[in-house]
Amino acid sequence: MKKNKKTNSDNELMSWRDAAKLNIRALKLWWRRMPQLMTSYLVLFVWDALTPYVGIYLSALVIDELAGARDPHRLFFLVALTLISAAVISLVSAILRKWANTYEAGLWYKFNNIFSEKLLSMDYVDRDKTETAALLSTIRQNINGGGWGLIRVPSNILSLVSSVLTLFGGVALTVTLFTSKVPDGAGALTSLGNPLFALLIAAVMIAITVISPMLSNKAGSYWAKNADVHREGNRFFEFFGFLGFRPEYAMDVRMYRFDKVCEKYNTKKDGVFSSHGIFAHYARGPIGLYRAASSAVSVIFTGVVYAFVCLKAWAGAFGLGAVTQYVSSVTRLSGSVDGIISTLGDMRNNAPFLELTLRFLDIPNNMYQGSLTVEKRRDRKYEVEFRDVSFRYPGSENYALRHVNMKFEIGRRLAVVGENGSGKTTFIKLLCRLYDPTEGEILLNGIDIRKYRYDEYMAIFSVVFQDFRLFALPLGENVAARADYDESLARDCLEKAGFGERLRELPDGLGTYLYKDYDKDGVSVSGGEAQKIAIARALYKDAPFIILDEPTAALDPMAEAEIYSKFNDIAGDKTAIYISHRLSSCKFCDEIAVFCEGAVIQQGSHEALLSVEGGKYRELWLAQAQYYAE
Which residues pair with 452 in a beta bridge? Predict the structure, then answer.
């Protein structure tokens, strides 16, 4: 905890000017994304800010009439007008609130969509960076921990608008409090009508009104200044507090009693949110004092208002009804000033979190997208060539690939083998243009792939990544990667991938949900079954190139043999690239490329490479074969 105090006590708030720029930009972003919500909010807040003064004004007239002439006809008219206006205001308020709530229901999804779209549209090289993942994690922790960042902007901006409008309404009904004259026969109270005295009282009220939210904002600034501590504590709480609910950890938690580790983090007294933690320390100290002072100042303001209004009424400056009007109006006027200052302070406190969010959304796309159309060939005659390609990951001085030269023969099967870290996965990332080469070029039908439209070039590849993911959606949608799909084609792809027998056992066939996230009758699939579904998904796309990254890693030997025996049928007329650690799979391929330390050191058929004494492929083959031989 001492470490936390040391690393976070010197954080500074952003300047008002910079905070204003960030909030305005964030508001524009929301307005573009959800104009209907922002419009409905604005109308509702304007209505709610101004309509209470109608009731205040009419109530004052009713009380004045009761305290004065007591004309039954006028009283009936005023009461009826008050009730009718209240009913109309309530009805319109309900309609406007329903309008706003309709769009507000999608606020969280639209908010997440902003980040999802950015992640999908940014260059994969940036998406894959540790820095990007860390920045996004920080943004989400800020949201989950204190509601900071972009999600806070709509309510802040509209609260500010509402407070300003409430201020104008309050001024309109309060100005006569200070201008009304006190009769000359009021004795010592006559001084209450002196303009200088009224100005002094107004200044005192304004000062007290301003001081209260400033103290409150000062208390809130401790949360903003120590947001990184809060974020760290929230991260620990989110992990250790809910570890028992995460099924992927359930067996290890039970077998090794990791609940004891959780207990250590969840019950320690000096944790961020614990009784001896940093926020408890602040709550007992400056935060508590500032909050208490803010409340005390608010009470003082109420006392000043009541004293001034009642004394002027006692002196005969106005009647009983005006007392109700002035007390209510001044109280709302004070609340509006309080709201303006509190909201401005909160917007300033929120500005550093907005800066993080906008920094993420501003990550530029530097990868050239290209403009050439990829020719859609029925004969699938696509030829890809690596020409002296070298690559190193951003921020690294070491090359992951060096001087790779390779040409894919159309319709052939290529196996890519090598030890871990030899460059196999990097090779596939470059082929699919998830990254661009550092040096050299990759050609498609003789043209640099960077000149083709990015989306069209990616469309010619179907890939089963080693760390693929299935979704908690119906099986057919997982295979087709879309809601509307060809059911017969999906079944055929599942059959080819070896999932046919399991498909016939599923209660709803292709409509069966995978997992139980969204359907209590959803089914769980084994690792091998999941891999077959992923292969079927690659087949459904029917791209000219099919890339299988360790496609049998989770399969038992029998299922592996089944996939291998059907490999030619599965690939069809596609050009197939097959990454594997199991060299037995290479016998089914036309050609094998052996990677070592980022370079292709051998290339040829299984028989040819196996015959090379001292060759890397033979070394790897014999190292694996010994586990299957007597």
Answer: 372
